[in-house]
Amino acid sequence: MILFAPKPFIPMISSFFRIVILSFCLWGGDIALISAQNLRSPNKVMELKFQLDTIGKPGFDFFAEGLPIVKGASLGFALAKDKDFSSGFKVDSIRQGEYKGSWNTVWGEQRQILDHHHLMMVHLSQNSQGTVRRLDIEFRLFNDGLGFRYIFPRGGNNGHFTVLEERTRLPLQQDYEAYWMPGDFDSNEYPYTRSRLSRIQALKVGEDTGLDYRYLVHDSMVQTPMLLISDQGYYMAIHEAALRHYPAMNLTVDRQQFILNTSLVPDALGNKAYLEDGDKTPWRVLLYARKAADLLTNRVILNLNEPSVLENADYIRPGKFIGVWWEMHVGKSQWQYWDRKGSGNPGDWQPVTNHGAHTANVKRHIDFAAKHGFPYVLVEGWNKGWENWYGIWKERIFSFTKPYPDFDLDDIHKHAKSKNVKLIMHHETSGAVTDYERQLDSSLALMQRYPYAGIKGGYVGRIIPRGEHHDGQWMVDHYERLAFKLSREGLTVDLHEPVRPTGLHRTYPNWWTNEAARGNEFNAWSKGNPPEHETILPFTRLLGGPMDYTPGIFQIKMNAYGKEKKEQVHTTLAKQLALYVTMYSPLQMAADLIENYEKMPEPFQFIKDVPTDWDTTLVLGAEPGDFIYMARKGRDSEDWFVGAITDEQERIFEFEPSFLLPNRKYNMFLYRDGDQAHWESDPMNYKIIKKTIRSNELIRVRLAPGGGCAIHFAPAGQKRNR
Amino acid sequence: MILFAPKPFIPMISSFFRIVILSFCLWGGDIALISAQNLRSPNKVMELKFQLDTIGKPGFDFFAEGLPIVKGASLGFALAKDKDFSSGFKVDSIRQGEYKGSWNTVWGEQRQILDHHHLMMVHLSQNSQGTVRRLDIEFRLFNDGLGFRYIFPRGGNNGHFTVLEERTRLPLQQDYEAYWMPGDFDSNEYPYTRSRLSRIQALKVGEDTGLDYRYLVHDSMVQTPMLLISDQGYYMAIHEAALRHYPAMNLTVDRQQFILNTSLVPDALGNKAYLEDGDKTPWRVLLYARKAADLLTNRVILNLNEPSVLENADYIRPGKFIGVWWEMHVGKSQWQYWDRKGSGNPGDWQPVTNHGAHTANVKRHIDFAAKHGFPYVLVEGWNKGWENWYGIWKERIFSFTKPYPDFDLDDIHKHAKSKNVKLIMHHETSGAVTDYERQLDSSLALMQRYPYAGIKGGYVGRIIPRGEHHDGQWMVDHYERLAFKLSREGLTVDLHEPVRPTGLHRTYPNWWTNEAARGNEFNAWSKGNPPEHETILPFTRLLGGPMDYTPGIFQIKMNAYGKEKKEQVHTTLAKQLALYVTMYSPLQMAADLIENYEKMPEPFQFIKDVPTDWDTTLVLGAEPGDFIYMARKGRDSEDWFVGAITDEQERIFEFEPSFLLPNRKYNMFLYRDGDQAHWESDPMNYKIIKKTIRSNELIRVRLAPGGGCAIHFAPAGQKRNR
Predict the structure, then answer these.
(1) Fewer C-beta neighbours within 10 Å, C or N terminus of chain A?
(2) What value of ipTM does the predicted structure carry?
(3) Is 0.90 surpassed by the pTM of this model?
């Protein structure tokens, strides 16, 4: 327990830490006593008042800057079989303390993170027919957020038990404006909707979103992260941290009274979680910010996660990758090798004419990666099974060890090795996770043989075990087990269609990125993502962790691949560049076809230059749904990068680069929208400006509608390989 | 398809086979036509009349010796989503043929098996809004049974689909006496109940059976095999054959009209099966016999299974084993190594004082096995996880690679190798099959390293994936996948608590035995098995395949292990010997403590002598629930063995050993109940008689109540190692 036996966080060096026991209180009263105790944030701006009501129901009030945020929250569980674990409690003791320390990230948006909070541990017990069952509730109050979780202590007399529902109930005090997504049990690939809480209509979302498999349940159920904007002007985000061995949390909103009720994702039987004494729930988190921009550097979720469990993190090298991938999305090539038209009998199948993952094409990508300094190449469609995989809910579809006949593993890896490039193995499970897990050991052995750098995993479709959901406990366990197992093999993990992240990349730095939201790919074959989409994601999805959004599409209009194609990316080209700064991931894709980069080497230079690991991050300005302006300094580098993006509105982005060292000249490489650029009508119109600049010079850039700007500042006079 | 391209059955040699096309009929009529076609068994004793009624519903009548057995059977399915696939059909064509051939068993009750049947393939189609969906129904009519199955032909336009229910409905024509067991989705370890069909009360069974986890659904639902005894004196057994990629079949009995309705075991969502075009259902089987004894040599179920898929069967060596096993059942030792009393914190655990699977004890068993000619030793409790495993429905409990600290893998296997003994590895999954499958590759690697002979698997408790059942499609797939995977590793499979067998040991001879019924172990710690139990099993459970019943208990009364123990085995000692003949398994346990065998070497000699692989099997007399008298000749041997068992009634067993070679003398070793023996009061009272005998001499033996007799005939004058 952190309070009494603080351990230095390994392998990071704590620059300072401090524990103060603020109070200790033994509560002798019976359950008729109304008990209360207050906890304040270190800066005293936030205040939490824990209380036990007359029927022994635990709860709290929560205030920020004197304003009531939550009043009359109640806490607890319904356990099988019909066991109420939300009232009838008494308080055994309450302890308070302060923690102040810092830790170094393995990679990330900043090198060092401060963790300063006050904490309160409430020890409760419930006497039911002579059996005393125990429940602890832990609160951590930061200057910019609150986290609390439930702990079922060892020896707490619950044994092994089933959670029917978590009864966390948070009555908010106003009808917030919210950015929300439906409380789907399987998908987080919706666009965001903005509305008052009272106007949430979750079931209306999704008809034309390009999502084939959706699992919606309730019209007022939303998922987290959810962003709330108050009438007073402050911002809140609601999410969870350290989601482990527990289902994801949705929120069922009382639209009249603005009460948020926790609704856990069920398993096949409708149960929520299978736990035992010693288990903890994830943290329920409220982030608070006076201005929106501050949410983007809020580190409460990371601080609530456990330190890294990796024995060795040397193999985790942030970087960029290209892939045999977008060419399938735009229809240039196919994942599958066999054409199964005709009899349907595999013996009669013929190879297709445009299989993407063939040896020559992969080697071409390796050559390109080596030439332009990309350490990784992803290849999709390398393995058997793509002929009939989509939407059929079949257990055995893919092999994770058998390549197609035109994918020469030895030849490809020999070539990759000679070029100092590593492959990322693609593991599309089609949701058949039982079968994937059966094959995992042999697939890992194959990855070690060459070796691969890691995996990109996919979970398209309904889950097997049938009845389980992407966001239920069983799958949450799967993702973590996968990350842990691969960490021991020196392999990295990038998951598509997993549960939304909750800061576990602190604990498993090799599980470094996820899709888990609506990525750039939707622009290739659906109605796409609205121009504001990328200005919302960092306020919502990315609060939980990095996103493999796959930016860098230069060929914005899909009609380049066929006249019949009407789709297009809903940004300008310059905004695609800016996303490398505003949309954080330690593993970042240059997603377009390599021939498009070859055609446009000048803007491509920014992608080559921008790092994926940062020393410092500054938000120069941000408003969700409108714009994000960010500046970041590369780790172990003096270079700074700026990304500015806007929604469908044209904007002027104006700033002084005061973060640059004073009295020093920098070469500025500025990639902006062309004068007539517009995301819809003229998206590929860009302009590159190179000049020398100092920290006190004003920079003023027009962002086109749906546009953006990317800037690279490099100290002048340094020899650079450009 | 067997009809037009008969393949010789490999690797067995077919001594003869013959195909005759009896008829071919193209049906041009529309669905309003009432269509019918008859099929007769080769000996014309059985007759099947297929028909399509006025609404296009397929069905049949079935007669044996002119008596109506089934009248107005109907066939078909309910498919998702609300798709009726049981009417609206028309007949495209019907083909009939005859097959006659024989095949050799890898091991079994007899060396060669004749397969002679007439067959009828009915091709149906259903036109639904312009889509023509196809269904084939295949009938095979033997002289002693009927099998039929559904085939979803390739290109049949059902694609991938979900079976909501199979609508097979068999109206019987009388209120049979039946031996039945409740239609539990997870357990087949009930004692049998005898009643008329009209008196089935499935929910009343089980309260005092010693079964902790039961999943009963319906008061008139029973499982198969079910034995039926007619008023006219003939016998029928209802079961299925070749249960693969499909759930097990229960039967819901209409107790007024004696109609059997197929009720498939559901998955977590209530669906029954996930299939695609090209899949076949198991065979639905009716076995028919004029006298009960003939059912015990009925090979219809084996004939309906596919030939062996093994590339190599050399490693499959029938034989007997001893084990570190019964000592845990009687409380002499424990499976677990750690005593988890106290804090509940693993760091505080102490070793127990009587862990069974310690190195010295295992080596003692290896020495015993070597000395007495047992090729295999089973060790339970060798692996980590036994401290808290039972009934907690937790996913990760057991390790299948990590031995307890006192189980020295290297030392034990070095010793075993020097003694030419192999170990059987125990894999208790506690029902957590997902976790077992994750660990399987690494466990197989461990087994190869030493090597082990095979596994004894166990599935005690509720299944994970949660909501799945032992007898559902997902688990049926699991068992087969396991058998196949281990076959490729040269490992044998003996499963406890799996779905009931359906003859798949023909296809996977390495999956050579199963428990899958109420075994001898229940006598150690429950109300036990009634004395008639072993006279019913060969008429029911064993119709599907061999059983690992674990006979050979000499210390009948458990009070030898503690005064407080009231349990006892419900047979005499001599009957325990007879079970080696009457209860077939190619892998047979000598289940008692080896020290008990050391104390009683004379009766133990029979266990040492009796083989587990036979050339010929004869039934000298049998009545279910009363007695079974069997004679078998060892494979590649001139020795004969006789087993005779009775229920709670005393009987005189009298026969001439006319199966012996005439004009030849045999040494007879006869193990019978002592004169005062009685299963309850004096069960260990036995007598051994040795004499020389010829084939025409009458042998007359008293079987005590709950008793039996075992006889070994060895040609006289041969040098034997006794």
Answers:
(1) C
(2) 0.93
(3) yes
